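--- STAGE predict ---
source: upstream dedup step, 1 unique chain passed
mode: sequence only
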Amino acid sequence: MKIKLKNLGALRQAEFELGDLTIICGQNNTGKTYATYALFGFLSLWRDAVTIDFPNDLIKQLLNEGHTVLNLPSYIQDADEILKKGCSAYTQMLPTVFAASDKNFSDSEFSVTFECSDKWLQTSFERNIGSAKMQIFSISKKANESNVEITLLIDKEQVKIPEQIIVRAIGDTVKELIFGHLFPNPFIASAERTGAAIFRKELNFARNRLLEQMGTDKNNNLSPMELLSKVYSDYALPVRTNVDFTRQLENVSKQESFIAKEYPTILKDFANIIGGDYVVSRDDELYYTPQGKRIRLTMDESSSAVRSLLDIGFYIRHVAQKGDLLMVDEPELNLHPENQRRVARLFARLVNAGIKVFITTHSDYIIKELNTLIMLSNDKPHLKEIAKRENYINEELISADKIKVFIAEDATVKVDGAQRKITCPTLTPADINSEYGIEARSFDITIETMNRIQDDIVWGDK
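--- STAGE serialize ---
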């Protein structure tokens, strides 16, 4: 999947592609977070942005005869145009995604392209639409068949069925069959996660207090949901999503991810990074328990590293599903260099387990550790000896073809629809070599400058 951006924050024109592990690095204020938030917003809202139109005859046939058939290939052939319109609709949502003024996005563009796939044909689907007391109609598709069967489950004379419900349900099904396998379910850990972790109780209190006020304020003309939406609209969608997840950790802890079931050693690796475990008590209180100590610490008593990794830890243990996209803004926040290395190895293990990972980073330690994992993945005897000596395991080695890296920087790009080129803030693909790893010149230039200065200091008078 390729994402194209125009006039979005610092980015004048940019294009990047999702890999199994996607990395955006670069200096501050170069557009990394804009690209991240725009992508997260699209993956969260594409079902709302994309619309599917159906002929009226299809709905009439269903209501008159109780059954109809939708030919999926006729919509597959229009998938590019459907998605193009959806991206245009999503572009109009950008002010809401970023919680910013409309004028900041007046000439912005967001678009997604993808390679055609026949996975839709292999997919089977079955769903009954209705309420707990009454099922109204069913939508189904068998694997390797191209038709979607739609059948009424009640006598239309007994219950009047609003056509908009049918149209929406069918549209949601078709969207899911065409695009569902293309767009991963996103989870984001924004850079604000440390604050959300320590103030989670206050966030709950503020929300409850707001609900109390809504119940007592007779002069308030807004509905409860409208008022809550108005309050939350002050924050960008990724931040709101992050805060909401952190507020619900007690409920989240009652679930179990596929990682917990199939890859328990990943959870052990994570516990070693934070030096303990997160625990939800019987009375739904959240604590951190350090390894080897019989104490329980609240989040405000715990280290900033423990708070920084809180939502990532709960996601891995309780929420993660295969095919997800884990997005982390600056995973190095509050982490010692050794733990930055461990986080890089954790990400590689998650990728190999079936979760896509997307990060923005300023950490040379993370990039260098990924380079080590790339180089050690080559099948050479001396590399195997090094991996064994340094305690690397096969599950955390990663091949170069699974990684996409982009540098946020000024570069020369070709203007769409024209022959001329311009120099502007963009995202430049970084070279990735299976023998030497990632060429992250954003860090290399700074490191070389520091080395030169220190060499001059030490050897300048010799």
